[in-house]
Each structure stands twice: as C-alpha cells, then as structure tokens.
Amino acid sequence: MPVGDVMVASIEQVWAWLGEVPDPEIPVISLTDLGIIRDVAYQGKTLVVTVTPTYSGCPATSVINFEIDKKLRDKGVSDLRLKRQLSPPWTTDWIKPAARDALKAYGIAPPIDGTAADGVIAGRIARLSGDNLRVECPRCGSAATEKVSQFGSTPCKASYRCTDCLEPFDYFKCI
Amino acid sequence: MAPAMSDIMTPDAAELARNAPGDGRAPLAEGSPEHDLFIGLTRLGDNTLILGHRVSEWCGHAPVLEEDIALANMALDLIGQTQLWLGLAGEVEGAGRDADALAFRRDAWDFRNLLLVERPNGDFGQTLMRQFLFDAWHAPMLKALEGSSDDRIADIARKAGKEVAYHIERSADLVIRLGDGTEESHARMQTALDALWSYAGEMFIGDATDARLAEDGIMPAPESLRAPWDETINHVLAEATLTRPDSTFAHKGGKQGRHSEHMGHILVSMQWLQRAYPDARW
Question: With a threshold of 0.90, does the pTM exceed it?
Fold first, then answer.
C-alpha cells in the first residue's frame, strides 16, 4: 500500500518474497521451507527480519543474509534490518513437510522426526551401537542403508550408503 | 637504586604488550563482575577456538576422506561457537573488540584455553582421544550453561549443545572402535590416553573467578563437572577395552594464561595474516 510516496510491503508479501529465496546449498528448498526465518515485523518504518542460524559455524549463514537483503531491496524495501536470534535454537523439526519431499526428490534423505539431538548425551552414547535410525535411500526407497559418517558435505548432513542399490547419499541429520 | 640485572633482562612482556600505545582501552577492573564474565567467556571461546584450529590442521591430511570431512565439520562447529562466545566477550568488555579482534590480536598470555586443547595433533588416535576427553567435558558444561542466570550465555549453550551432542557421539564411537580394534589401534589409543591424561584434570580445577561466576549462577563450578565426565569416560573406556590411568596429576595454567610452548606456534600460524595485514578482508 502506498504511504506518502513510499511503497510499504505487507508482512504477508514479505513472507512470500522470502519464500522465493532458495537455500544457497540446497536450492530445491527455500529459506521459509527450512524454517530459519523466525519473524517478520515492522519496528516503526524499519522492516526487521529475524533469522536463526542452522549451525553456528555454517558458512552459508552470511550468504543467506546477503540473499535476504538483496531480495528485499530488489523488491523496493530500503529500510531493512536483519536480526540474529539464537534461541530457541533451530531444529530440523521446523522443515516443512513439502520441503522434505523436495529434499528426497533432490537425492537427500530428509530428517526423521522425533530423533533430534536433545542433549541427553548418555542416551545417545548408549544407543551408539544400536540401529535406532532407519534412513530410507532417496533413490530406491530401500531401508537397507548404513551410516558412513556422522558428518557430510555440509554441517547439516551425514553420509549414508544404500546396501541394495549401492547409492551413496546425504542424510539431512536431525538437530 | 639501579634495578637488579634480572629486572632489566626479564621485563614483564605481557604487561609491556598490554600497555603498548595505540590500544587506548580502559581495562576492566580485576575481580569486577564484568571482568569475571569476560574471563569466563574467553575461557569458553578460547577452548573452542584453539581446538577448532588444531582440528582444522587435519584438513586434507586425514586417513580417509570421510574422516577428513568429519574433522573439518567439527572444526567448523567449534569456530562457529567461538564467534558466539568471543563475540559476547567483546560485548561485555565494551572496548570495541569483536570476536576477530580477540582471536587475532591477543598474544598467548591473554588466551584462557585449557592446556589440553593446545596439545599437538599427534597421530589420528591422539587427535581423537583429545577430542573425546574434551567432548566428555564440553557436553555437560554446555548442559549446565543452559541454566545460566545470564540469558545470553544460556542461548549460546543451547545452540552449541546440539552440535556437541554429535561431537561426543562420534568421538566416543571412534574411541571404542579403535580401542577395541586391532592390536595396533588398541596400542595407539592406550598410548594417546596415557599421554593426554595429565592434561584432563585442569578442566575440573576452579579458581577465584570460577567461584564467583558459580556463586552468581552464571557458570557451573568446574569441580561439579567431574562426576558426569567420570561416568562417560569410565563407560566408554571400558567398552573400548582401554585402561584408565591411575595418576591424578594435572598440568594447569592455561585458564590463567600460562601456556605450553605449543601455544606460540599455534598463534604464529593462526594470526599471521591478520598480523601482517591488519583488517584484511576478502
């Protein structure tokens, strides 16, 4: 809506624009799909976009902030501020259902709900030898897969291998 | 009276460096709540920074690709956590130093990390054992910090704790696999444990700063982390068929800025670029 000679974008409109910004590492899902945009609000005339990092050392964080800034400025938002919010920390539970399907189609096994790292260290150590996760191969759908490494091509992924079709793949690990 | 020869020959280098012209900041008063908090935060941030740097030295050199990637990822987590801890430390100090300034413009005596994390990488087994001894402390430390009376600290701890849950899972898993592995891998893991053991005790020795921080509910007393650490260590070492050393001797001083000879070497490689080209950016 025009206020004076400046166009002020509605909150809904801003969310829709942010939904068009792809994740720099996994371009099949958007920043809103990923659940890292925590809030969009006006403080006075300033549009404040609150973003939470996925991993504290993720190199994509600064690229994400740059992309948000660029998208909104391209859409005519000039009075803009990005705010970092650490708490509550990001969890893979916030990834939207449709985005999980997109991840799978892209070849990345989506995170399995309810297994997010909750800080109960003793429990995790006790389960070390157990096969408590059944990660399906995104290529053939087989559940006969094995973990190669808890860490993968980006901080948010683990490396897996399908023992049926032999496809190596990334698993978006729960956090 | 002329100063004695030893006074001339051994100037207080730390004091000289801190008072060097061009700094211009008013130092926080020793023993003040702000100074305690600053020290506590640099201890946390320096641990993650120096260990992160050490682990990153493996990049491109690990025994297999998957381990190379895992080590680089863990280094990344630790450096990310460093930005949060040292960022907050700079804020508390209020002298205009950000995380980068604290990481790249301090000298060894102002670093507050444990001696354990500056130990050289050694072989892969030694790197993993160092990581495991640290992770087994780091995880319960962050858990306790989640309940800090300072919300900024609790927020960072909740974030970092999720990442460290994966670190301890991995390092414990590998200590078990290599300890309970071949004769060669078992021997190397036991050697690593024996060599590093005397550097673990420092994690549980508190000083006056720790006591004041614990009293205010800001950070846990270091002594309180001994029991959960022992539990994890005993469980994992038993699974790994490794023998826990008897000695209770502990090297200490890192938390107070008294470091081993390795610290200077780490800083030479870590700070070289920022020292040669201050404020360089890409």
Answer: no
Report how far residue A8's alpha carbon sits from residue A1's, in angstroms, rounded to the nearest whole number.
6
Closest CA relative to residue B141, chosen from B72, B88, B213, B197: B213
Integer Cα distance of A128 and A6 in angstroms: 58
Contacting residues of B for A93, CB less than 8 Å apart: none
Nearest CA in chain A to B135: A121
Domain A2-84 has CATH 3.30.300.130: yes
DSSP summary character for residue A133: -
Please tell me which of the candidates A119, A125, A150 has its beta carbon nearest to residue B162. Answer: A119
Residue A159 tokens read as 């490396």
The residue with tokens 């920390």 is A89
Question: Pick from B142, B114, B110: which is nearest to B201 by CA?
Answer: B114
Q: Which two tokens stand for residue B6?
A: 């030893």
**Taking a C-beta distance cutoff of 8 angstroms, is the pair B119, B127 a contact?**
no
What is the arithmetic mean of pLDDT over B157-163?
95
pLDDT digits (tens, 9 = 90+) for A9-60: 899 999 999 999 999 989 999 999 999 999 999 999 999 999 999 888 888 8
Q: Which amino acid is at B84?
A: L
Beta carbon pairs, A and B, within 8 Å = 103
Pairing verdict, β A46-51 and A80-84: parallel
As to burial, measured by CB atoms within 10 angstroms (0-12 exposed, 13-18 middle, 19+ buried), residue A62 is exposed
Q: Integer distance in angstroms from the first to the last C-alpha of chain B?
A: 54
3-state secondary structure of B82: helix
| Least confidently predicted of A97-101, A149-153, B166-170 | A149-153
Q: How far apart are CA B227 and CA B107, in angstroms?
A: 34
Q: Which residue of A has its CA nearest to B158?
A: A89
* Start and end residues for every CATH 3.30.300.130 domain found in chain A: 2-84
Structural domains in chain B, CATH included, are 31-276 (1.20.1260.10)
A130 touches B: beta carbon within 8 Å: no
Partner-chain contact B78 A128, CB within 8 Å = no
Q: What is the DSSP letter of A97?
A: H
Closest residue to B69, CB basis, from A89, A116, A149 = A149
* Cα B74-B77-B79 angle, rounded to 5 deg: 110
Cis, peptide link before residue A88, omega less than 30° from 0? yes
